[in-house]
Design a protein that fits this description.
The structure is a single chain. This protein is α/β, with parallel strands linked by helices. It has a single domain, classed as Alpha-Beta Barrel (TIM Barrel). It is about 45% helix and about 15% strand. The protein contains twelve helices and eight strands. Strands 1-2-3-4-5-6-7-8 form an eight-stranded parallel beta barrel, surrounded by six helices. α1 packs parallel to α12 and α5 packs across α7. The protein is globular. Bound molecules: phosphoenolpyruvate. Phosphoenolpyruvate (PEP) binds next to β8.
Length: about 250
Amino acid sequence: MRKKIVAGNWKMNTNLQEGVALAEKVNEALKGVTPNCDVVIAVPFTHLASVNAVIDSAKLGLGAENCADKKSGAYTGEVSASMVASTGATYVILGHSERRQYYGETSAILKEKVGLALENNLTPIFCIGEVLEERENGTYFDVVKAQIEEALFELSAEDFGKIILAYEPVWAIGTGKTATDDQAEEMHAFIREILAAKYGEAVAEETSILYGGSCKPSNAAQLFAKPNVDGGLIGGASLEAESFMGIVNAF
Ligand code: PEP
């Protein structure tokens, strides 16, 4: 049975003290309860070690929001996958549309990042998704297929099995405009078909595919009820423990 996961993506929000306090609140909310999904928070690099020190890693996974496409060396300002792993984090979001759009991250760059993340035992949460124009002109299946093929399809089946996918239609991120549960299911089922064709049914069935894009407590249950939607990648609603836990409890 593939894992159900709710992961928060804090983006460039909270200073260190606010971030630690938010992580403590989520950690507290998970005490004494066993959610029907794994729970992960992806936080700014500066927060990783401090957050790791205050959470129970058995109940709350920790991730970075990015990592470098190089191993180490003269890359001022970059943070490597091995540095991320050394903080205690075990996940890393890669290919978020904001990284693709604002920082020019191409599939070639993302392929490097994925490889380095896996080498350092980090679980990539790999984001894919079309922009509004691609949704409207009907090319969205092709766009998502190409994003997966270009960055991930040189992985062995064993390595691909370590990847979590997050389908995030760009037009739904931070816009308050959520994809309908049917739109999400249609894309997730399509993605699973592509995976089955490349890696076989077993790998496709085991791959968790999260939905992201204005997911909130009020719409999470309906999205998560779809057979191919294995959880959510949550931006805005992960910045308050109550709303984040509302989504966790939607499972
Ligand atoms: C995201 O950035 O991954 C995301 C899904 O954001 P939001 O939930 O705010 O739309």
